[in-house]
């Protein structure tokens, strides 16, 4: 981004969100983080809010507060949960929880930011989805809601294109974050086996995904909208064995 913009990042306190926040701040961009926790680091260009995005009322309130106090040019919805279970143990309540987090929360945040984006004739909305949207064992609720992200993003891309607002999706494969290590033990044989099964021969990093997101945020990417970019080392083509 050539001029100073303000990017709202959900889950900007850790993982991919934190990596993106640090990248943008390092480039002189303003960042607003919102999530269950505030970042463990500070910077003059970083503002942080705490909210539970699985709560519609709490999300609506924080969205209004943030967009009242900041001219949000870009929104990156990165916050997410997995809630893994095989089908026999899966719960419909998990679908409702993840639908609010992965779909309802960005809807409320975008609705709050949309008027300002339209008035400036510029906006960038980027969802962080997952390769699991294509299907993955133990991911009933997660895969369903992440696949829903793709459909919603394409719909918004059509609706918002005349206003100079693009909407795109970055879908990571296996990335070394706390979410990943919450399921695959850190440094385990399982982790090593997964790395060997990735076509490019390694697991992804937070920075890999932040780099892809920054492409969609760039002012020069205004002819790209409604797209899903898999940042997955080739696993969207070949699959991934646990």
UniProtKB/TrEMBL annotation:
BP GO annotations: fatty acid elongation
**Alphabetical UniProt keywords:** Oxidoreductase
Q: Which Gene3D superfamilies match?
A: NAD(P)-binding Rossmann-like Domain (3.40.50.720)
Molecular function GO labels: oxidoreductase activity, acting on the CH-OH group of donors, NAD or NADP as acceptor
**Coiled coil regions, renumbered to chain:** none
Protein family according to the UniProt entry = Belongs to the short-chain dehydrogenases/reductases (SDR) family.
- Statement: the UniProt record of this protein carries the keyword Oxidoreductase: yes
Source domain of life: Bacteria
Q: What is this protein called?
A: NAD(P)-dependent dehydrogenase (Short-subunit alcohol dehydrogenase family)
Query: Which Pfam families does the protein's record reference?
Result: adh_short_C2
